[in-house]
Amino acid sequence: MTSETSFTRKMLGSLAAAAVAVGATLTVASPAQAAPALRFHSAQYDSPGKDTRSNASLNKEWIALVNTGKKAINLKGWKVVDKSATYTIGNVTIAGKGGKVYLHTGKGTSSQTHLYWGRGNYVWNNTGDTATLKTKAGKIHDTCSWKQKSGRTKVAC
């Protein structure tokens, strides 16, 4: 046993004894909570067919999130960000164990698995782009980037 380990054990023992003497409870700090197992799954960055800006065409452009953890995650306040626009997620819970949520560019009625940005123009650039997922606190949690590939309109993140 190193002298540092011995010293640490003695200090913890002394602190515990002091806590008991004053009727307090000694708690040892646990490691920081792990970040949610949430990430981008895929993006349909170029809606199939002609880019007509019709709502149907806009909704064929989407980006998907996946929860690879065991527990469901409430996404309220999380943001999906592009250089030109930001979407703030409402009170939506993504299921655990592979649950997915799709964010479509156009208008529609949102559900727990399909969200609608309500835009009248495309968000994701066909020639390459980066989507950023931010936490409620505004910290970058994940990104998904792509470059145009011949014949591809969808990418796995």
TrEMBL record:
Keyword Glycoprotein: no
Signal peptide start-end: 1-34
InterPro entries for the chain: Lamin_tail_dom (IPR001322), Lamin_tail_dom_sf (IPR036415), TAT_signal (IPR006311)
Keywords, comma-separated and alphabetical: Signal
Keyword Glycoprotein included in the entry's annotation: no
A Pfam family of this chain: LTD
Domain LTD: 29-148
Protein name as catalogued: LTD domain-containing protein
